[in-house]
Design brief:
Number of strands: 0
Oligomer: single chain
Radius of gyration: 28 Å
Structural class: mainly alpha
Number of helices: 6
Largest sheet: none
Length: 141
């Protein structure tokens, strides 16, 4: 299948000249810096890497600072909700409490209520529908 759209330019994927100019000068060549990062990923300490390349530890640390490392968990997320749900969350917010803390508190309360309702349901006869929390409660104005 042929490439659709405009193909990437000759320098696509490369670091911008501005970013390269802002980076500090390192006493290691780009190849050595890449090897230093690979050694660090394998568990080598900066002092060992500096000794191997015969440069000061500070130079190796400059190369290692430029390493990309995966983030194990995201720090934020987006919650797509209706305007009614947004109003509910904002009404439940305590002072200037962060929204994530409000959501955590609301979900903790919901889980607790569901667990309590589950204990009631387990002790009832089949077909009884009293005291059950609705999955989607009626919207309040």
């Amino acid at each position: 299948m042929a490439f659709r759209g405009k193909p990437p330019g000759a320098g696509s994927g490369e670091m911008s000249r501005r970013t390269a100019a802002l980076r500090p000068q390192i006493a290691l060549s780009p190849e050595e810096a890449s090897k230093a990062r690979a050694l660090r990923r394998k568990g080598a300490e900066p002092e060992e890497i500096a000794e191997r390349f015969g440069v000061p530890v500070a130079e190796v640390e400059k190369a290692l600072v430029q390493m990309r490392s995966p983030r194990p968990e995201t720090t934020r997320g987006t919650l797509n909700v209706t305007l009614a749900a947004h109003r509910l969350v904002m009404a439940e917010r305590r002072g200037d409490e962060p929204l994530w803390r409000t959501m955590d508190r609301l979900l903790d309360e919901l889980i607790g209520l569901r667990a309590a309702a589950g204990r009631k349901v387990a002790g009832r006869r089949r077909g009884d529908t009293e005291d059950v929390l609705p999955l989607f409660p009626a919207e309040q104005a």
